[in-house]
Amino acid sequence: MLYEHRESGEQVDITCFAADPSWSRVTRADGAGLNIRTVDVNANWKQVPNQTVQLSGRADIGSAGES
Amino acid sequence: MATGIALAMRATMLDFVFQGATATAPGATAAFGLKDTDPGDANGSGTEPTSGTGNYGRAATNTNFGTTNWNASTTGSNPATVTNKLSVAFPTSNAAWSTGATTLGFFILMSSATVGSGTFYARGTVTPATAVNATGITLSFPASQLSFTNAFT
User: Fold this and answer.
1) Are A31 and B140 within 8 A, CB to CB?
2) What interface predicted TM-score (ipTM) does this complex get?
């Protein structure tokens, strides 16, 4: 689950280990993280709902854009 | 721009026209992968996320070649363009796909849904280049947002 700090806006991802649910990994947006035995999410944090990012993709064929 | 059809297919298309060679259509299966940097014209560069890491996998629904998934190319104007009929989505992440804020700014069109496998058909740019660094993120190309333009002049 993704959580966002209500004041700073920093986000962390908390993922439960499937092999050992008593452990979780907390990961920052920059990739740094650590494993924690007990995670207590207090009221300073709010859960971020799943998000869909809509993309566009383009390939130019046979033009000056192709390389 | 770092986009286009695969190097091998360019020769096939030219030989079809100038050599009278037989051009065999690709098989029906097509899938999209993502890469962090330009895959190059033979898919020899750039890094695709590891299969299963954060639930990454290629987008293989609504992607196969044929009239069900792809609009007919435009005619009578330049460039001719083909677009996707239906939304093409990657699996929703359940963790980061890559370390840190690495963005995925390129797609590859492949003959296989298996990461690391298949024949390379084409590559293109993805806008916006996006980092999947958390759980619960779904990357999706809505209908008509995947375009292949052919501007042979």
Assistant:
1) no
2) 0.83
